[in-house]
């Protein structure tokens, strides 16, 4: 459950949240990576591009994918 002002949104998964905020609040700040700020609209584009890449290499819906990131 995410509280934004007086509205409460419920999401089934993380992508639903990114999709909704990317459409409704594309200029709102989503992530801070070092000195870079990524807004929800840009984050949605990046997430969709990564999903398209996974699909191109053969990953299908509902398959699990592990992602390792440096801390």
SSE order and pairing:
Layout: E1 2-4, E2 7-9, H1 14-24, E3 29-33, E4 36-39, H2 40-56
Antiparallel strand pairs: 1-2, 3-4
Helix pairs in contact: 1-2
Structural summary, described in words:
The protein is of the alpha+beta class and 71 residues long. 39% of the residues lie in helices and 21% in strands. The chain has helices at 14-24, 40-56; strands at 2-4, 7-9, 29-33, 36-39. The strands form 2 sheets. Strands 1-2 form a two-stranded antiparallel ribbon. Strands 3-4 form a two-stranded antiparallel sheet. Strand 1 and strand 2 (7-9) form a beta hairpin. The longest helix is centred in the C-terminal third of the chain and has 17 residues, at 40-56.
Gist of the model:
The protein is an alpha+beta fold.
Features:
71 residues, alpha+beta, two-stranded antiparallel ribbon, two-stranded antiparallel sheet, 2 helices, 4 strands, 21% strand
Task: Please tally the β strands and state the result.
Answer: 4
The main pleated sheet reads as:
2 strands, antiparallel
- Please, how many helices? 2
**Mean pLDDT, rounded to whole units?**
87
Shape: globular
SSE-based structural type: alpha+beta
What fraction of the residues are assigned to beta strands by DSSP? 15-25%
Low confidence ranges:
none
What is the string of SSEs from the N terminus onward? EEHEEH
Report the end-to-end length measured between terminal Cα atoms.
26 Å
Widest beta sheet: strand line-up? 1-2
Rg from Cα? 14 Å
What is the percent of helical residues?
A: 25-40%
